[in-house]
Amino acid sequence: MVLKQIKAAVEVYHHLPRYHEIFHVFFKYGFGSMLNMSHLQQILEIKDSHLPAEQKEVHGKPAAMRFRMALEELGPTFVKLGQILSTRGDLVSEEYMRELHRLQDHVKPFPGAEAREVVEAELGCKINEIFKEFDLKPAASASMAQVHHGILKSDRSVAVKVQRPDIVETIAIDLAIMMDVAKFLDKHVEEIAVLNPVGVVKEFSKTLWQEQDFNHEARNMERFAKQFVGSRIVHVPAIYKDLSTERVLTMEFVTGRRIDEPANLRKHGLDPVKLSENISRLIFQQMFIFGFFHADPHPGNMCVLPDGVVCLYDYGMMGTLNPTFRENIAEMVVGLAQKDHRLVTRSLLSMSEQGYAEDSKKLEGDVEAFAGQYLDVPLKDLKLGFVLNRLLDVLRDHKLRMLADFYLGIKALSQVESLGALLNPDLNFVQFGRPYATEVIEGKFEPKRVWKDLQHTFAEYWDILRDLPVDLHDFYQKIKTGRYSLPIEHRIHPEGFEPLRNTLNHIANRLSHTFVLSAFLICSSIFFLANQKVLGIIGLVFTVIMGLQLLFSIWRRGGF
Q: Does residue 160 contact residue 182 with C-beta atoms inside 8 Å?
């Protein structure tokens, strides 16, 4: 334990410059009160005089915009955090989600010579041994990596994604700081603790490290491509596995038209209406048929090929939905389409981490009111993305937390629906999803599926029944021998420290008073036995006076 504390203290000291940098940026953008609330400023001994004055032109902007600007200035890790928060309606309000959607990770590219060094180090040979041409000027640049165009010795055109030098060290430090802060807030700031900050940082850390491993992205691309083999709707760039590593990803170089420019698409003989229908079908197929979907399908991550096929880029952020979760989402979509608030409520509870609501009747009433407010429109006018984001407000009010992929799914559906509406203002997005959702629900009752579910259920209950006698015996033995204990955690809000300290002081004072009183009584008795009656009487008088004071104090505080 001591060694862990020493290690933690050394790490905090090592990260102190970055702590100061983070505090300076947040104070610069007007979030000083938030940092004061967490008491981190006092702990790190950062004085107000050391902090930058808030810029007047910045201070006048909305808080969500200032938060987004602060994250952009803090660099890649915080930009990625903001992008993930933009999908989490359980953690931030819609205003923040909308603003964080604007986060751009297009940053100044690092020198092409450094990219060449990374490629050579990762592939273990000189770049001219593999490439006939390698453009040192990046074709695209982002916060975590940049892409270079190259031509192989076989004359194949490729895109080479290269990780930024030293980005791993930067991320490691920022994640360590985030975890330190999250643990502190979880213990001392109840308003933030209910959001499970430690769990959020762990989840974010896992996602971010996966994105840093290009082997993980390559596996995502291969899995996604297998789902759509022979598809006339979508194209996935081919991967060159022998030229890819954890830090370098070499893939087929694909170019096409921007999908969010309908006028330009028509000019080149491409039908925006057909494209809107194709991408709508595509997202519902991903979510309901395969359960593995592209979680960031914005226009910058796709293009349209000359034959009208859509090509998707960047497979670092993907979502996964197991069959049960898919069924729950399908029921929610069908419930929304049919304005069935009971079906929507049941599906939401099934998808939540808790599995229940503190007040299920109130939740059902809120969903019914929600349905009356947002679903009382013709199906063709129902905007699924808007409705789902409004639904997150209901979940937040009832403190219901969903799995991360639920929020990624909402984000993906919202992005595709918005893009589809841009291409085709008359698009009925929900209508395209309804057949897929209905098929998933009906699939629950297929004989083979029912028999398989019964087998799994019987196996699970059989394991429980088989282990039950042993578990009960162990439980009984622990109680019998006094080895069973109930873990109790008490969370203290910073404002509650002073009353607690006063209470503990009163307890300590009374105990001290009692010990001194006992000592005087014993000493007085000894003096009487030693024929020192004067000292004995004096001691006895003091004992009586102190005893009366203690009794009066207890009586005054309601002790009797």
A: no
Is residue 359 annotated as part of the catalytic site, yes or no?
Answer: no
Amino acid at 68: R
Residue of 90, 174, 296, 340 marked catalytic = 296
Give 286's DSSP letter. Answer: I
How wide is the angle at C-alpha 294 spanned by C-alphas 288 and 296, nearest 5°?
130
Q: Quote the CA–CA distance of 116 and 236 in Å, as a whole number.
A: 26
Residue type, 377: V
CA distances from 224 to 145, 216, 231, 284, 286 (A): 22, 12, 12, 14, 9
CB 389 within 8 A of CB 94: yes
> What's the CA gap between 437 and 442, in Å, rounded?
9
Let me know: does 96 contact 103? Beta carbons within 8 Å.
no
Tokens of 453: 């579910």
* Distance between CA atoms of residues 250 and 119, nearest Å: 10
Read off the pLDDT of residues 436-481 as tens digits, 9 standing for 90 and up.
Answer: 877 777 765 455 554 555 555 555 556 666 666 766 667 667 766 7
Hey, CA dihedral for 92, 97, 98, 103, is it positive or negative? Answer: positive
CB 303 within 8 A of CB 257: yes
- In whole angstroms, give the CA distance from residue 557 to residue 483: 37
pLDDT tens digits for 393-407?
A: 787 778 777 777 787
Torsion sign (Cα): 553, 554, 555, 558: positive
The model scores a pTM over 0.85: no
